[in-house]
Design goal:
The complex is a heterodimer.
Chain A (H helix, E strand, L loop, with lengths): L3 E2 L4 E5 L4 E3 L2 E2 L6 E7 L6 E5 L10 E2 L10 E3 L8 E8 L7 E3 L3 E6 L1
Parallel strand pairs in A: 2-11
Antiparallel strand pairs in A: 1-4, 3-8, 5-6, 5-9, 7-8, 9-10, 9-11
Chain B lengths: L3 E4 L2 E4 L5 E7 L5 E8 L3 E10 L2 E4 L6 E3 L9 E3 L8 E8 L11 E2 L3 E5 L1
Parallel strand pairs in B: 2-11
Antiparallel strand pairs in B: 1-3, 3-8, 4-5, 4-9, 5-6, 7-8, 9-10, 9-11
Classes of the chains: A mainly beta, B mainly beta.
């Protein structure tokens, strides 16, 4: 069963508009959630993790255990935010396997 | 600086041939992973290893094998390449932390494999 669902394959917004990339997960324990980003022709890199509760490049994500969601948000999108975004889940063990969603390709138009 | 590298970066091969993709990391990470990235499927885990001599199957392991003889390397072998294995392959590594909450994976640059 898919542990991480990203319902939108493609998402387009205009520069300056708010953006929200959706992520829902399925796991009965205490998960650790991550957002990874892949800019064009670059390797995947960690954007943020829920336990850090930090804002990176203006993005934030809140873990909502009641709705089993970990949506990524930014109030004012920039063109350089255009990239592929992956939500990922760890089952909280120390072993390190991550379950990735299918990704959302974000395009920010000028 | 510590890093993770993959070679080759691009490979074209023929159906039926054996192909090995290399992955090398200098972080001394215990955990190493191989993924394939395909349009519409995102990242799918092929095989992974939690240490020397340890290997595990991921969700799309058929037709692939790995071996872990040292900490730094996890080569991925396609026993008999098929056109369905045309993809971009990513290697990643992470530290085996004594506490949870630190499972960040560091990714290599990827290998683009084409099977004709």
């Amino acid at each position: 069963a898919q542990r991480v669902t990203q319902p939108e394959k493609l998402l387009s917004v205009f520069k300056g508009a708010p953006v929200e990339l959706k992520c829902n997960y399925s796991y009965s324990g205490s998960p650790e959630l991550f957002w990874y980003v892949q800019y064009s022709r670059q390797r995947l890199q960690l954007l943020l993790r829920h336990i850090s509760r930090e804002s990176i490049k203006g993005f934030t994500a809140d873990l909502n255990k009641g709705e089993t969601s970990f949506h990524l948000k930014k109030p004012f999108a920039q063109e350089e935010d255009s990239a592929m975004y992956y939500c990922a889940l760890s089952e909280g063990s120390t072993l390190g396997r991550l379950y990735f969603g299918r990704g959302t390709q974000l395009t920010v138009w000028p | 600086d510590a890093e993770i590298t993959q070679s080759p970066r691009h490979k074209i091969t023929e159906t039926g041939r054996q192909v090995t993709l290399a992955c090398h990391q200098t972080w001394n990470h215990n955990n190493m992973f191989w993924y394939r990235q395909d349009l519409g499927h995102g990242l799918r885990l092929i095989h992974y290893s939690y240490g020397v001599q340890d290997t595990n199957k991921g969700e799309v392991s058929d037709g692939y094998s790995v071996s872990r003889s040292n900490t730094e390397d996890l080569p991925l072998t396609l026993e008999s390449a098929a056109s369905s294995q045309t993809s971009v392959y990513f290697c990643a590594s992470s530290e085996a932390s004594g506490t949870s909450g630190y499972n960040e994976q560091f990714f290599g640059p990827g290998t683009r494999l084409t099977v004709l």
